TrEMBL record:
It comes from the Eukaryota. Belongs to the putative lipase ROG1 family. Residues 148-249 form the DUF676 domain. It comes from Candida tropicalis (strain ATCC MYA-3404 / T1). InterPro entries: AB_hydrolase_fold, DUF676_lipase-like. Gene3D superfamilies: alpha/beta hydrolase. This is DUF676 domain-containing protein. Pfam families: DUF676.
Length: 353
């Protein structure tokens, strides 16, 4: 039997200058609980920088040259397929949630990604409006068989965003969604997971490295420049929160070993933080290899995930690390990302979202 674990025992609102330290989660997400509730509103998963919904490598050829639907589907498949949200969508759907995986320009700037995200959600909610009952969309079976089809009422959604996806989502809410009328959806909540709300020192390092080299500037995606700590100060001044939307956030940190994917970037983060904020170095050093814990904080900060790197958060766990820890240190993984997302869904449900 799976043990039941209490996760959200307390939350910290970083906008209130309280004295309590943010909660650190070390092993509570290592196993699944016996029961989770599905949230009321559909979930939209928003990927980060260089992300995708599903990436196909080595497309399978249409050897039979058939025009049937079955063969057409075959040609759209690949020998190797990678899911950005590996196993997460399926787990949330088994819970009973309506889940959409957004796809935006992988290396685009924040505004263009937010525009794409808006179009994606509009299209999905328009389809829901035309095909599903209100009770089905809002996960309340047999309660209300009316539909949104002939109503101006928008469909409410919960956004769950990883990394840069949280910035796209904030821009969407503040600058796009609030400036249009009669849309098909309304954002009810935004949960960000290791989003660089205050910039990334890794981006600072890259921009410093580029310097005045025009060739490197042309090769570097514009979003890298937007992810710097200096640019995000301006971003936060211009992109204001919507008081009708609930904002939640998580951060992550880990201590790298030689085989970790983010060992080098962790050192870059450490170097830049020490260089730029020596007076607060010890307090700010915690990071997941790309985003510091301090930069991850926005709205109601739920917790810091301990010994978790940037890709662990989307279930791309470093298998080499897991095996090495088991063999050399007799340690089992302390983090199951599926448990994190199921708990987020459960807590959204408890907030009637």
């Amino acid at each position: 039997m799976l043990r039941t674990v209490r996760y959200y025992s307390k939350v910290i609102n970083i906008k209130d200058k309280g004295e309590k330290a943010a909660r650190v989660i070390r092993s509570e997400f290592s196993t699944l609980k016996e029961h989770y509730d599905a949230p009321k509103y559909p979930i939209v998963l928003c990927h980060g920088f260089s992300g995708f919904d599903r990436l196909g490598l080595f497309p399978l050829p249409n050897l039979l040259n058939d025009t049937t639907k079955k063969t057409k589907e075959l040609t759209e498949k690949s020998l190797i397929e990678l899911d950005y949200w590996y196993g997460i969508k399926e787990a949330l759907e088994k819970l009973g949630s309506t889940v959409f995986i957004a796809k935006v320009p992988a290396f685009g700037d924040i505004k263009s990604r937010a525009i794409s995200l808006d179009k994606f959600i509009e299209k999905k909610c328009k389809n829901l409006r035309e095909t599903e009952s209100k009770s089905s969309i809002y996960n309340k079976p047999n309660e209300d068989e009316s539909t949104f089809k002939d109503k101006q009422e928008p469909i409410k959604v919960n956004l769950i965003s990883h990394s840069m996806g949280g910035l796209d989502s904030r821009y969407l809410i503040s600058k796009i969604h609030n400036n249009k009328e009669n849309g098909n959806y309304k954002v009810a909540s935004l949960t960000t997971i290791s989003t660089p709300h205050h910039g990334s020192e890794c981006a600072d390092f890259i921009v410093d490295l580029i310097g005045k080299n025009q060739i490197l500037k042309q090769l570097c995606p514009p979003s890298i420049f937007q992810l710097t700590t200096s640019h995000m100060k301006k971003f936060n001044e211009l992109v204001q929160d919507d008081p009708t939307v609930q904002y939640f956030s998580f951060g992550a940190r880990f201590n790298p070993r030689w085989y970790n994917l983010f060992s080098l970037t962790w050192l870059v983060m450490k170097y830049k933080i020490e260089q730029e904020q020596a007076d607060k170095f010890r307090q700010l050093i915690d990071n997941d290899g790309l985003v510091s814990v301090e930069s991850s904080k926005w709205g109601q900060y739920i917790a810091t995930l301990d010994e978790v790197d940037h890709l662990d958060l989307i279930n791309w766990t470093n298998k080499a690390r897991s095996v090495f820890d088991k063999v050399m240190f007799a340690q089992t993984p302390n983090f199951n990302p599926i448990a994190l997302y199921l708990e987020i869904a459960d807590q959204l449900s408890k907030k009637n979202l």
